[in-house]
Structures are given as C-alpha cells and as structure tokens.
Write a structure and sequence with these properties.
- The chain is an alpha/beta fold and 356 residues long.
- It folds into two domains: 47-229, Beta-carbonic Anhydrase, Chain A, CATH 3.40.1050; 243-354, Carboxysome Shell Carbonic Anhydrase, C-terminal domain (60s Ribosomal Protein L30, Chain: A, 2-Layer Sandwich).
- Helix content is 43%, strand content 20%.
- α9 crosses α10.
- It is globular.
- 39% of the residues are buried.
C-alpha cells in the first residue's frame, strides 16, 4: 500500500496544496487540545530545562515524535542542510532571547545540534552535505564551538550537544565533548534504567539538571526505535519534494521528502532558494512528482495582535516576493509553475493564517 506521503506526492498540485493546508489545521487543533495543553504544562513542571534543536529541513527528523516528547516543548530551528552560523545577527538574537528567557526563570538550556545520516544507504543521507556524514558532523561541532563562544565554555547555563539522527531507525547518537558516544541503537536489549549512568559517563560535564531532563528524550527514543524495529517501515529514498518553504513556523511539516525549508538564518537567501528550485525542477524532470506545479510557502510567526502581527505580515510578503524574484530570474520556466502562498503563524496556537 502506498504511504500517505506518497499519495500526497502523486496528486494534482491543487489537491496537494489543499492537503498540506489541511495538515496545518490538524496540527494546530491537536496543539490547542486540552490534553496536549495539559501534557505540556505537566512536562515543563517536571522537566524545566529549555530545549532547542538545530536541524535540517528534512521531514524525517521529527525530534518530538522520535523521543515521544509533547509538541511545543522543543523549540526547533530548521534550515536547508542544517547549516547555521550563530554569528548571523538574526539567528544569534533568536537563540540569545530563548536562552535569556529561560535563565530569567531559573532554567538552563540544552541545545541539541543535529546531523543526520542513513546506515542502510548513503544516498538517504543529508542532501545539504551531498550525503557526506563526516562533513555534516563537522559542521555540527563547529556550531557547538560557536555556542560555547556565545554562552560560555563552562556549559553550565547552555549545554551544546552534538547529536546524530540515524533516519532508518530514528535513533539518536549522543556525542560527548571528548569523543564519547552513546548510540541508542545499542540499548535495545539493555535495561533502560542504565541509560542514566551511560549518559553521565558520556557527558560528565553536563549539569545534573540537564542530564535529568535529557534522559526522558533518550528513554522515549529507545521505546520509539524498539517499536519501529518490529514494524514494517517504508524508507523514502528518492527526493520527491514539491514545496519550497521560506521563513519560520513550519512545525506541521514533517512528511518525508515533501518540503525544502529555508530559514532566514543567513545573509544569502538567494543561494538556498536557487538550490531548492534546482531540486524541484529535477524532481519534475525525473517524474518523481507531477510537473503541473509546485508550492512556494512563506511564513512568519507572531505572538500578539497589532504591531507584532503586522510586522509578521510584512516579513512574510517580503520573503515571498524575494523568493519569487530569485526563482523567476534563475529558473524562468519553472517559475511559471509556481503557486505562491503567503501566511503568518499565530505561535501560541500554531494556527496558520493565509494572507493570499
């Protein structure tokens, strides 16, 4: 039987867009449900460490799902290839604000810096690094070094943790600061209670409260990959992306090989937009997706009505116009198949509000 993601890829463009927007509505409804809201409140009371994750736009890397963590606990930063530079002012400001907000109420921050790969086939690795796992890992370590420069190398307030994600199994691989490794795949037949000792051994410089709040993610990941091991799983090998996303607020998009997400986290947005357009065009030419169109989705989150929302609207329209201009200039034939959709996201509810 075809997977829901494959069925979505095979539909005409209008139906694909409607299905994607419906997915965003379902995500917001679940996020705002009483049970989900209470789960977040309870979890934060028990595990107050703030958790941010730097990750690739690849829809397979869904950390809350893979760790069985309630939605809204982990703050994501997603970009093509998981490529970031903390020196870029906007990204540095977002991260710093998140860290200061946590510190002001007495909480530390765990910064998960991820890279991903496939143990079964190199071609299922990270396209942003040409499936070169060592290059992706080296970049993750470079971000961790920048985090130390930004927040302190004693790692007491902010702990940058390089974390691999093996996409065939959804397993986490924790890298200590002195080349120690904790691979959750190795724990499928071991007592879950021993994970705490293993984590302390791999990350002895990690503050105890951060270890305590990372442990549920590791235990959840162990349960998740153990369940997947006994289930038949379809591994999407080919690129089938048909959406280019630019901006932020795409939490609902975790369908494998569906969207190429470009965060506003660097000074040169034109290059990743052009790269994404090349991938979309190649997908059409190879017959992996219908050639009747692709979606350009621009989004900006906002917290409050009034000026905050108005600024988000302006930003989304700017990003949408900018991306359209790049695609028209570099890929004029493909641009004729573009379906623009501009939106803002009410972040407290994750509601996607269309502007066009």
């Amino acid at each position: 039987m075809p997977t829901p993601a494959k069925l979505l890829h095979d539909q005409p463009i209008a139906q694909r867009i409607d299905a994607l927007l419906d997915l965003s509505k379902q995500h917001a409804e679940h996020f705002c449900s009483p049970g989900a809201w209470l789960a977040r409140q309870r979890y934060r009371a028990q595990h107050p460490t703030s958790i941010v994750v730097m990750k690739c736009m690849d829809g397979r890397i869904h950390i809350p799902h893979a760790t069985r963590t309630p939605l809204g606990i982990i703050t994501p930063f997603r970009n093509l290839g998981g490529i970031f530079d903390l020196g870029w002012p906007y990204l540095g400001e977002l991260l710093t604000d998140a860290v200061i907000d946590a510190a002001s109420v007495g909480h530390a921050t765990l910064m998960l810096i991820t890279y991903h790969f496939s143990s079964g086939h190199q071609a299922r690795g990270c396209a942003g690094f040409d499936c070169d796992t060592e290059a992706a890992k080296a970049h993750a370590y470079a971000i961790a070094k920048q985090a130390g420069q930004l927040f302190g190398n004693d790692y007491q307030q902010v702990y940058p943790l390089v974390c691999g994600f093996e996409t065939d199994s959804d397993a986490l691989i924790i890298h200590g600061h002195h080349n120690e490794v904790l691979d959750i795949r190795d724990w499928r037949n071991q007592p879950v209670e021993d994970l705490a000792v293993a984590l302390a051994s791999v990350c002895p410089d990690m503050p105890k409260e951060i270890q305590r709040d990372l442990l549920p993610l590791l235990k959840g990941n162990l349960a998740h990959i153990s369940d997947l091991q006994s289930a038949e799983r379809v591994l999407d090998i080919e690129h089938r992306e048909w959406v280019i996303c630019i901006g932020r607020g795409f939490d609902f998009l975790h369908l494998p090989n569906t969207a190429l997400i470009i965060g506003p986290y660097g000074p040169n947005l034109a290059e990743p937009i052009g790269t994404a357009a090349v991938i979309i065009d190649a997908n059409m030419r190879a017959g992996r997706i219908p050639d009747d169109g692709f979606m350009l989705l621009a989004s900006t989150p906002y917290q409050h009505s009034g000026v905050d929302r108005a600024r988000a609207e302006l930003k989304s329209r700017f990003l949408s116009d900018f991306a359209e201009h790049v695609i028209q200039r570099e890929h004029p034939a493909l641009a004729k198949k573009m379906r623009r959709h501009t939106a803002v996201v009410h972040w407290p509810t994750r509601r996607l509000d269309s502007l066009t």
